[in-house]
Amino acid sequence: MTVEPPEPSGQVLVASNRGPVSYTRSGADGTLTARRGGGGLVSGLSALGADAGTWVCAALSDDDRAAAEAYGGRLPAEDTGGQSVLMLDIPRETFEAAYNGVANSVLWFVHHLLYQTPLEPVFDEGFEAAWARYRAYNRAFADALAEEAEQGAAVLVQDYHLALVPGLLAKRRPDLRIGHFSHTPWAPPDLFRVLPDEVARELLLGILGADRAAFLTGRWAGAFTDCCAALLGAEVGEGTVTHQGRTTRIGVHGLGADAEFLRERASRTDVDERLAELRERVGPGRATIVRVDRTELSKNIVRGLLAYRRLLTDRPEWHGRVVHVAFAYPSRQDLAIYREYTAEVSRVAEAINADFGRDGWTPVVLHVKDDFARSLAAYRMADVALVNPIRDGMNLVAKEVPVISENGAALVLSREAGAAEELGADALLVNPYDIAGTAEALHRALTLDQPTRAAHAKRLAEAATALPPTAWFLAQLDALRGW
Ligand code: G6P
């Protein structure tokens, strides 16, 4: 007997750890103020219209939990811009163990190849307890989605935080069309095997519970299917993985930059003001090498600074003629290793300034306070953009700079960033571990002749915007509904 797939409902559910809104409480009465975020999912879901679906996310802080409690999880439309958002009030210990103890310090590390010492990782009782909570956190999402979903609805589950959700949900609601999207790289089998066997299997089986598992590049999709074959003995076909009688389709959707949004936002007066300030800081007639990142270990900021230092050492002709504008915005500061890394970035930048700087020339301008308008100003003024992650799912900075750079910035890009698959032909590709090679690429980028640079910049901007966020989102949805 063949089971016909159910008629799809028009309803779309998105599930992600971080939702589109966060809260802060202030004053004696604990007034809750909402702050809305951006990104590909926000654009995609809003393109469907306010009634099309619901976004299910976790409360990330005590203030979020207060809001989730106050509103019974359903956030008021005025806080969400009309979008229906269900914020799950997951107990703090469960959330923190799942988020910091598993997702950020284990899964993120495995997929980004960040374990670099013989002492890490340690899978002890502490990890086992965190893993139990990761499961509970995933169950909380699966329960909420099972409750919320109409017959045959499409459910788009996001990222490594929620890898178990597709499997859990498919068991409870076989009528649903479930997609999982990984925004990160995926580890090759030899590295994925670092995880305890049962954990590795459960993660793969969890994602294979989806009808469709999608990735940002073919490389990450291939690593995932290699893991399924190597660890589960699954059968890998042309764009499919079959295991225990169930087939999951594998998709690739390379998220692009949102040109319309970026151009409009970058032309506002607050960005003009920041640009004027930055120009003054850099000094007239000097070339700029720009980088903008979260202070994230995988972004490889320290090696980027060391490559710049090497440029100044090997090629003194650049002294006084170039400034490295580096924005490194603190991230995941709950983890000690991130706090240490943030401090190291500042130390290395200060040492460069102390060793090479002179009156009227500061070789590195480092900012650590998040400021989107200033980031856009830096993109506008960049002569060279430096994007050198150890590994990255895509890296949107590499795609955003070409869209709004006024000087046709040259792009020095890690070959390990997902974006290299689409932009590689017009970028100067580097091995992110190779400091001398990166320094040399910076020199070549700074000395590219203007017509070559302009031709690259034009093609980079085209490639970077090939699949803007709304189209990226709708393509996933269409593919999932196409079944
Ligand atoms: C980056 C990654 C995403 C991930 C997100 C989590 O943007 O590309 O894959 O979901 O970080 O960041 P958070 O600040 O929520 O831990």
What ions, cofactors and ligands are bound? Answer: 6-O-phosphono-alpha-D-glucopyranose
The whole-angstrom Rg is 23 Å
- Percent in strands: 15-25%
- Architecture of the largest domain, according to CATH? 3-Layer(aba) Sandwich
Unreliable parts:
none
Structural class: alpha/beta
* Mean pLDDT level: 95
CATH superfamily of the largest domain: Glycogen Phosphorylase B
CATH topology of the largest domain: Rossmann fold
Taking the sheet with the most strands, its summary is: 9 strands, mixed
Tally of extended strands? 17
Shape: globular
Helix content: 40-55%
Number of domains: 2
Number of helical elements: 19
CATH class of the largest domain: Alpha Beta
How far apart the termini lie comes to 19 Å
- In what order do the strands lie side by side in the largest sheet? 5-4-1-6-7-8-11-10-9
How would you sum up this structure in a few lines?
It comes from Streptomyces mimosae. This protein has two domains: 255 residues, Rossmann fold, CATH 3.40.50; 206 residues, Rossmann fold (3-Layer(aba) Sandwich).
Q: What does this molecule look like?
A:
It is built from 19 helices and 17 strands. 49% of the residues are buried. The chain has helices spanning 40-48, 62-70, 77-80, 92-111, 125-148, 165-172, 189-192, 197-208, 218-232, 259-266, 269-282, 301-314, 336-356, 372-381, 397-404, 419-423, 435-447, 450-464, 469-482, and strands at 12-15, 21-26, 31-36, 53-58, 84-88, 154-158, 177-181, 212-215, 235-237, 240-243, 246-252, 287-295, 322-330, 364-367, 384-387, 410-414, 428-430. The strands form three sheets. Strands 5-4-1-6-7-8-11-10-9 form a nine-stranded mixed sheet, sandwiched between helices. It is α/β, with parallel strands linked by helices and 483 residues long. The longest helix has 24 residues, at 125-148. Strand 6, helix 6 (165-172) and strand 7 form a beta-alpha-beta unit. The protein has two domains: 12-255 and 471-481, Glycogen Phosphorylase B (Rossmann fold), CATH 3.40.50; 259-464, Glycogen Phosphorylase B (Rossmann fold, 3-Layer(aba) Sandwich), CATH 3.40.50.2000. Helix 12 runs parallel beside helix 13. The model has no long low-confidence stretch (mean pLDDT 95). Bound molecules: 6-O-phosphono-alpha-D-glucopyranose. Residues 18, 159, 183-184, 331-332, 393 line the site of 6-O-phosphono-alpha-D-glucopyranose.
